Amino acid sequence: xxxxxxxxxxxxxxxxxxYARKGxxxxxxxxxxxxxxxxxxxxxxxxxxxHKISEIYDRVAFAAVxxxxxxxxxxxxxxxxxxxxxxxxxxxxxxxxxxxxxxxQTLGAIFTTESKPYEVELVVAEVGRRPETDQIYRLTYDGSxxxxxxxxxxxxxxxxxxxxxxxxxxxxxxxxxxxRLAVEALGSDxxxxxxxxxxxxxxxxxxxxxxxxxxxxxxTFRRLSGPVLAGLxxxxx
Length: 237
Fold this sequence. Notes:
Blueprint: H1 9-25, E1 30-35, E2 38-44, E3 53-57, E4 60-66, H2 68-88, H3 96-113, E5 120-126, E6 135-139, E7 145-148, E8 151-154, H4 158-168, H5 175-187, H6 190-195, E9 207-213, E10 221-224, H7 226-234
Antiparallel strand pairs: 1-2, 1-8, 2-9, 3-4, 4-5, 5-6, 6-7, 9-10
Helix pairs in contact: 4-5
GO biological process, one term: proteasomal protein catabolic process
GO molecular function, one term: threonine-type endopeptidase activity
GO cellular component, one term: cytoplasm
């Protein structure tokens, strides 16, 4: 008679966490950082169709790294959650905190009950009327939630990128300054560190950039690309 195969709960959770972290680390990073007029989202992403950064509702946006099909399912669920809540109650009742809590429950349930966890890491951000009321929440594959202040980096080489942001970020950056810092930080990844050549140059057409702009009414999300993005990165926008 064969012996039943047994894995302790601690080992099972550790194996799931290692599996998810390895999947997330293979992807390009995303940087989210606050600036004087809102919140900027920057990712190295040459695709024009497969977005890592998306609008959820009037003042709420979403960024993700990891497996595209998994975080796209979460994005769609977030849009549905926001639409139903805004229609049933009031548009102001759709908040990043509420959405982050909903995502945390979903990711936590998948991590605990499914054989394979989601290989994703998310940021849900909401731009406030004033900089001090901005909200940035980071969610990991197991449903853990962290309330971030100022900036966050996730995905591959997140530690090196965060170190660069920690050195240079400060409150009150202009949009152009924030974008230039984000691109420099993305270029300071593990590959650049190993080569010892300084930050990699990332062309504007290999970037996906969006902002939540507090100076706009109602829908604050907008994408930046083409000459507008190039001008901001060059300091002439």
